Amino acid sequence: MARKPAPGPRDERGVLAARILTAAREQFAQHGWAGTTMRAVARTADVDPALVYHYFVSKERLLDAATDPPQRWLRSVAETWTTPVDELGAALLRLMLGAWRDDEIGPVLRAVLLTAAHEESTRDKLRRVVESSLIGVSQLGVNDEDRLRRSGLISSQIMGLAMMRFVWKIDPVASMSEDDLIAAVAPNLQRYVDGELT
Amino acid sequence: MARKPAPGPRDERGVLAARILTAAREQFAQHGWAGTTMRAVARTADVDPALVYHYFVSKERLLDAATDPPQRWLRSVAETWTTPVDELGAALLRLMLGAWRDDEIGPVLRAVLLTAAHEESTRDKLRRVVESSLIGVSQLGVNDEDRLRRSGLISSQIMGLAMMRFVWKIDPVASMSEDDLIAAVAPNLQRYVDGELT
């Protein structure tokens, strides 16, 4: 018989909720918004479907919880922005590559990118993540308009690289070493940071 | 009563097939692979579901037909690659911006990008489109490895820009004028074309 933990004592709640969120990220990333069901998430997490509803109420709220960026990620983003401006291109690229390698942050980023195209609320979240992490805290540019443009262009290159390397897995970008990738791409990011754009 | 054209005379076949493909692109782009049904495509195209099966057999084959790049697009890609090498960065960017504006090509590109994340066969097709249009015909680099890297990096920037501007619609990249975008991005593409990458 399948093991189906019932809603357990209080200290078990965090463990089960985390297990459900891990399963949800996996399902959303693999099957998209429309292809994911609460039942499949429960099965992947090895819990009773009723527990998924009990903790997360609806598929919308489950997606919302599953795609919330960890505090640790927001802190490392904020830290990266303290890098001296002439090394920022490489630092932002290293931040992204490290995030995708991270056991906790990588699956969240993947779930966000893979549901954003079809789910308006995740698109809003992607927008907010981009704005707060890549745009909001940046000190770039001579004025607000310039700052937003530079940050948006940086995001376009970083996101495109993430799609090619981690989501669509198109070679040779998918298989290049991180060192080669940084050598090739960081100077382009650096131009968006402090180069002439007009 | 709803108008439901039956399989008509031979010269009607092309018209109905085109209408089904248009509806399929719209559905796949909006709801993704898992969220699209043959029935919804038939409803959008205003035809009988049996006709969709009759012409396209299965959802897999419908997606395949709906995401085939038009010959006209492949020709304009090949033509772009004849641009003098020092203007290629801007030319490739103009090609992409024009393609998204095109009534026929734009919806195909959108359907490819929006289903590639969750459908292995579309991911293969995206790979082939990237390889044949952006990589295969290019004359870049000093050897094959260098050529493939340069083309892959160009694709990463162009695809990232397309996602930000047309799919996720994140400002200011989504709303910048084409001229501003070309001024900001073309020099970065040009570096991937003929700059020092190591």
Automatic annotation (TrEMBL), chains A, B:
SUPFAM superfamilies: Homeodomain-like (SSF46689), Tetracyclin repressor-like, C-terminal domain (SSF48498). One of its GO terms (molecular function) is transcription cis-regulatory region binding. Coiled coil: none annotated. Residues 14-74 form the HTH tetR-type domain. Gene3D superfamilies: Homeodomain-like (1.10.10.60), Tetracycline Repressor, domain 2 (1.10.357.10). PROSITE patterns: HTH_TETR_2. This is TetR family transcriptional regulator. It comes from Mycolicibacterium flavescens (Mycobacterium flavescens).
